[in-house]
Amino acid sequence: MTKSIRANEVERDWVVIDATDKVFGRMITEVATLLRGKHKPTYTPNVDCGDYVIIINASKARYTGLNKGSDKLYHRHSGYFGSVKSEKFEDLLKNNPVKLYKLAVRGMLPKTKLGREMIKKLKVYEGSEHPHTAQVNKGK
């Protein structure tokens, strides 16, 4: 019989991923898997059993696709008529790579309360420094 894990029984680790020279899309799928907890044998779909993920050197990742920078658009809408705003991939990468990572990962998580809790465990930093050293060292 398969045992379902409860929310208070979950053991969370801290995972640090260095984005330097990694392909963006492949890395994002790995991050989504870690946040959901699908890499653990105790995975339960209705419980947030994922780990905390820290991405460092976010601006140094590799991006594939010939014209992705100029062709790919990210849209947002306030709900009012005519209020759709679009931003190009290259502009978002240059101005706010943290938002780019959060948007990409959020698209791979459940669109429920559970998914909103999972995305809070993602920490993205442009440089190689992050303030979570105490948690990372404790987990290893």
UniProtKB/TrEMBL annotation:
Recorded superkingdom: Bacteria
Family matches, as SUPFAM superfamilies: Ribosomal protein L13
InterPro entries (alphabetical): Ribosomal_uL13, Ribosomal_uL13_bac-type, Ribosomal_uL13_CS, Ribosomal_uL13_sf
Entry's Gene Ontology molecular function annotations: mRNA binding; structural constituent of ribosome
GO annotations of cellular component type: cytosolic large ribosomal subunit
Keyword annotations from UniProtKB, A to Z: Ribonucleoprotein, Ribosomal protein
A Pfam family the protein falls into: Ribosomal_L13
Family matches, as Gene3D superfamilies: Ribosomal protein L13 (3.90.1180.10)
Family named by the database record: Belongs to the universal ribosomal protein uL13 family.
Oligomeric and partner information: Part of the 50S ribosomal subunit.
HAMAP family documented for this protein: Ribosomal_uL13
Summary of the function given for this chain in its UniProt record: This protein is one of the early assembly proteins of the 50S ribosomal subunit, although it is not seen to bind rRNA by itself. It is important during the early stages of 50S assembly.
Protein name: Large ribosomal subunit protein uL13
Organism: Campylobacter corcagiensis
Record lineage: Bacteria, Pseudomonadati, Campylobacterota, Epsilonproteobacteria, Campylobacterales
